[in-house]
Design brief:
alpha+beta, 2 domains, about 50% helix
């Protein structure tokens, strides 16, 4: 775009080297119109990507809950939920669990819903610790308490910077 603008600006200069204001005005209007077309194309692309992610998520949720023996979830590189299976949704029920939700926001909503057995005065530290473990590049399984049950969490980083997590729950 910058090279195009420079070429057009050269054309807007007259033989004397002065800029023709009318030609410059047309150039600026053309640049804004092109930028607006680019923005609309980007908006359409983003809308299609979000729609496709929603379809992938719906397909994952339609899977028989016993088709995978563990609770499964997937995050993108910005730590937003991409998809999860039905078993995961059953233990992390709530309005906060939606495609595109940040993991931290779902954790906070779980604290408000009393999903975790964390003391009120230690919540800030608990979230910081939980996020650090979630973002760590370690494949070491860990256990935590959820709804008065112990769960085992295993997470693996993906090549794109996201992660795939498996959660196993103990019987009630």
């Amino acid at each position: 775009m910058r090279k195009f603008f420079a070429r057009q600006l050269t054309k807007a200069r007259g033989a004397s080297g002065e800029i023709d204001l009318m030609a410059l005005g047309e150039l600026v209007v053309g640049a804004y119109e092109e930028a607006e077309r680019d923005r609309r194309r980007t908006d359409r692309s983003m809308a299609l990507m979000i729609e496709e992610l929603g379809e992938v998520h719906q397909a994952a949720c339609r899977c028989d809950r016993f088709s995978f023996p563990k609770e499964l979830r997937n995050f993108d590189a910005e730590d937003r939920y991409v998809m999860w299976n039905q078993r995961y949704a059953e233990i992390y029920a709530g309005d906060a669990l939606v495609v595109g939700a940040r993991f931290e926001d779902v954790l906070r909503a779980g604290l408000v819903d009393n999903q975790y057995t964390t003391q009120w005065d230690a919540r800030k530290e608990w979230i910081a610790e939980r996020l650090a473990r979630h973002r760590a590049d370690s494949n070491t399984p860990r256990t935590t308490s959820l709804r008065r049950r112990w769960i085992r969490v295993e997470e693996r980083r993906t090549a794109t910077g996201g992660s795939v997590g498996f959660v196993s729950t103990s019987p009630n």
